[in-house]
Every structure is written in structure tokens, then in C-alpha cells.
Specification:
- By secondary structure, the protein is mostly beta strands.
- It has a domain of about 110 residues: Hcp1-like (Pnp Oxidase, Chain A).
- It is built from one helix and ten strands, in the order ββββββαββββ.
- Strands 1, 2, 3, 6, 7, 8, 9 and 10 form an eight-stranded antiparallel sheet that branches.
- The protein is extended, with a radius of gyration of 21 Å.
- It starts with 19 loop residues before the first strand and ends with a strand.
Length: about 150
């Protein structure tokens, strides 16, 4: 009798990355691509004067979060990115929480990244080609003050 996979554990395969959802403040937005969900600890090099070893030691310092880049299709009368970017004034901008959720087959979040106090640093409009037949895509790059990750 052939194995139909019904008894297979759900932890055998890694999660696919094509089914995700982005919640922007409180609005759900559709994106083609999200990248830059990274964090690193900056290394501090130190050597005390009476160390018998003639080299530095490294210890973890401040955390550094990379900017997150999101791409979406251009729609008629949709100026969401540009409107948010245009709110930037001298040292002030509206900061919002951004939640990126990797979804399972049922549409439930399995892994969730939350950007704290996100704000736009760069908006890029689509490129235009008279011979192309691709969808117009715009890009927004957001900075944030922290990244939390949770698994459902």
C-alpha cells in the first residue's frame, strides 16, 4: 500500500517562504518581496595592559539592525509610501510598528517578525521600459529601532 503522507510529521519539511503577510500599523498590505530581516552584535575589542596574551579579546557590544526593504506592485491612486515619506520633517516622522508573518497552509502565522518604531528612509519608484512587459514595482526601505521574532 502506498504512503499517502497523512501520518507524516509536520516538522519534517522547512516552511516555504512564499506565503506571508505584512501588517503596517494596523493595515494589512500585500508585498511581492521582503528582505533585510537581520540583526548583528557589534564586536568590541579589548585588551587589558597586564594580559600575558599579546592579542585582544572580543566581547559583544551594541546590537545593530539592518534596514528592511519591501517591494510591491504599483496601483492607481495608491500613494501610501510617498505619503508616509512626505511626512518627514526636521527630525520628526511618524513611526509605526510593522509585522511580517510567515503563514502556514491554513493562513495562520507560524513565524512573526515585528519591527519596532519603523519609518521610511528611502522610496524608489518603478523603472520604465517601453519594450518590457513586467509589472510596475515600487520599493520602500524602512529603518527601525528593534526586531522581535516569535514562533507560533
Amino acid at each position: 500500500m502506498a504512503d499517502d503522507g497523512s501520518t507524516q510529521s509536520t516538522t519534517v519539511w522547512p516552511l516555504p517562504k512564499f506565503h506571508f503577510q505584512v501588517t503596517w500599523d494596523s493595515a494589512v498590505m500585500s508585498f511581492e518581496e521582503v528582505s533585510g530581516l537581520d540583526v548583528e552584535a557589534q564586536a568590541i575589542e579589548y585588551r587589558h595592559g597586564d594580559s600575558p596574551v599579546f592579542s585582544t579579546i572580543k566581547m559583544p557590544g551594541l546590537k545593530k539592525y539592518g534596514n528592511v526593504t519591501m517591494k510591491k506592485g504599483v496601483f492607481k491612486s495608491d500613494n501610501t509610501f510617498w505619503d508616509w515619506f512626505n511626512q518627514i520633517k526636521m527630525n520628526t516622522v511618524k513611526r509605526v510598528p510593522v509585522t511580517i508573518s510567515l503563514l502556514d497552509e491554513a493562513g495562520k502565522p507560524t513565524m512573526v517578525w515585528t519591527l519596532i518604531n519603523a519609518w521610511p528612509t528611502k522610496v524608489t519608484g518603478t523603472d520604465l521600459k517601453s519594450e518590457g512587459n513586467e509589472v510596475a514595482v515600487e520599493t520602500i526601505e524602512v529603518a527601525h529601532e528593534g526586531l522581535t521574532i516569535s514562533n507560533a
